[in-house]
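I'll show a sample.
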Amino acid sequence: MRTVRTTLLTGAAALALALSGCGSSSDDASEDGGSSGETRDVVDATGAEVTVPADPQRIVTLHYAATQPILDLGLADQLVGQGVFEPGIIPEDLADTVEDIPVVAENVEPKLEEIAALEPDLILVPNVLEEEVTDQLAAVAPVYTFTLRGGDRANWGQRTEEVADATNTSDRVDELEAEFEERQQSIAEEYADVIEGKTVAVLGAYEENNFYAWGESNMMGTLLMPLGFTWSEQENAIVEGQPEPEATVSNEKLTSAVGDADLLFLDSNLRAEPNAFMTALQETALYQDLPAVQAGHAWFAGKNTVAGYTDAHYTLDRVEEALQALAEE
């Protein structure tokens, strides 16, 4: 697992100084409508037992992969600090909800003094931070580590379950999951004749002259495979043996990686806007010569890295549009 080393503050004194200026008692918090002071013991993604508020009121997330579940679980009002935020990674009708919330991380590296100033009662951190960083955050508020990387990376639903466990909202997860699975089943049934026999591949691009290949066991696979698609054998093969079923691949291998796909779904934000690397990839002759592209069967489908149910539903929106177009051919 990749770890991130952040620049530590100049000794414990600096953090103590930050804390001394912003601390408040649990009684004060309760009177102001904050946490009641009651706690729960939970086990986070690392297996550590953490004591967290029973009803957290001031939550900080250090990555959007936790921010989206917070929104999906109806906890937007409790979010007081967040990791790096880009407007395009959230639907336009939700952007106003979070765009003004302070950003308290550089990539995933926490800004400890700014976090302390927010007086959080719960901090959600991805499982890529070093222990010494997590320990410093724990001096501010209870820290719950959620799954971002590793063997369970593809299970974005589990990440929502983890955030729900940390925030005592697990009762809401079953409803979100049932609604999503019902929608997948509905699409699979309505477009069964269109989907049958269709091979699908997913492409991202995050650096110059390379594309990102995804195997069927990754996040987008959990969205598309239940609909009845067949995943590209070439794309599965090119990520075989990777710790996670994904890989950065030279553009020169594009044809041998996804040339067998009937349909392509491309990484974008939640405005169907590609990043600069994906735009450059689409301008190459290798991309334009792909059978799926030649047939007009390539569509933007939202973020390949699924953060939560909002992301997942956006992808299904785009997939439904693609299936409608195919049905009309």
Q: What stands out?
A: The chain has two domains: 11-168, 183-327.
